[in-house]
Amino acid sequence: MNIQLASPYTRIFWTEWQLDPLSNKYNMIMDQTITGSLDINKLERAVKYLINKYPVLDSHLVEEDGQLLWRKNAHTLVTELEKCDSLQALAALAARPFDLNNGPLFSYGYYHDKDKDLYEFVVVYHHVIIDGLSVADAYAEMSDYYNDNLMTENHIVNDNFFSEKVQEYLFKLKNLSTANPTEFWQSALAGLPKTNDIPYIQHFGEDSTERQVKFYLPVKTWQVLKSNLKHTNAFLVFKTIWALLIARYCQSEAVHLAYPVSMENGSHLRLGAQVNTAVFPFFVHQDDTFADIYQRTLAHHHDLKAKPGLRFTRWPIYEVLKSTGIRPNISFAQAHFNELTLSLRGCQTRCHHRFDQSLANAELVLEYQEQNDNIAFRIRYEPERFAPQQIAAMAEQFQQLLNQVLLHPEKPLASFPLLTPTQQRQQLIDWNPPQPEAMMATGTLHQAITEQAQKYPQRIALVDEQQQLTYLELEQKSNQLARCITENYQRIAQKSISPDTLIPFCLNRGVEMIVTMLAIMKTGAAYIPL
User: Fold this and answer.
1) Which of 154, 281, 364, 515 is found 20 to 30 A from 347 (Cα to Cα)?
2) For 89, which DSSP code?
3) Domain 3-164 annotated CATH 3.30.559.10
């Protein structure tokens, strides 16, 4: 493949790269520890075999006259495995962004820990050339070559399949355009926020190498739970419950999820990643039951059928975003997250997730995979935005919500608590132990805040998304506002504030709301939130 037309789904990655060429969010990283009698030269030959066999792996993208093209690299840019002198250097290799306009779009590196007599091996691809399914194929072929199970080193796949599939995708998109996909998505996504306003709890402790939380649902339990709901589809049920949990976190009646849609025959090493992204709109109302919202999910799923054999989810995501203004930041996917490792004769391999970057544009993603006896779930997240404890709590809440809504699909959703019993006990008791002596000495809440400001003036008292206040700052701001309220009340009402005085206010949840409540209490009045 010296030059080939790229598909519309390849353009999705190209567009993202142009917006942020230094991003590594599409780095697909497989890192593992190899012990035993590894032949590093033979492993290097296995890498070269794979790159030479599949032309798309050894190509880069160019745009000429409005067309996006795959162009084979002028020469194989990686001639040997990149040797690193430390695990930190290997991490830097994994985090290195790719240049889609020049290539290469892969890197392989290793660190030989002689003291422990082991190799740390990392494979990194840009998502545009490979997806989760074809990664498994790549590992299998590299292993077969290393183990002398392949007969030839020079077999290069035929380009015809690639060009035929791209033409097929273009033909189907042209056919789909006659069903007015832009109008469909504008209608389906109307009323949704531009992005989901999920609260962040930043982690200030030691960095964790794990950026995911795993949990499991026994298949037998799932069989019992789903019997309470009509027309159960695991993908649609889990997606709906995840959206419901996100809506509760966002305190919103409308949220949206992004999810991947693989094109037919798209998961193949010959094609690169032929994957689109679709947006799931979710609306929930105060009196809804789970049966209500699941019926809306089923209705939307049915409406996605544009024509026989064509669904609106085929319409490229960049066209959807351009016409609707939606910017999805939370995702859902049915994934393949088996612990992929090379199978090398005479060696033992162990998979890790130390350098994972591949969240694409999501801040948070729930993935699941159906296994033999369990349905495995994992929540992956951006560690810069979320604390591990927050994600662990979210995983527990998802499991509780799943059990509650499927056991009682006709009960109002408002009757199901967000917090698990353990989390409720933690917040009400463990984090708030009784302090009788302190309470007797203080008497009122605002007096307790004053005491805290005197004892611990620089400790953080309040945090929201925009700001944080120490106890001293909280005391000063509430005092200033209390004086202002008192003076204005006396001027307007021509009398002093009394315990019977009611002062209404209307503010969004946050630091300013707490400051206002304290200030009103300090005046001696009572507050009424509107």
Assistant:
1) 154
2) H
3) yes
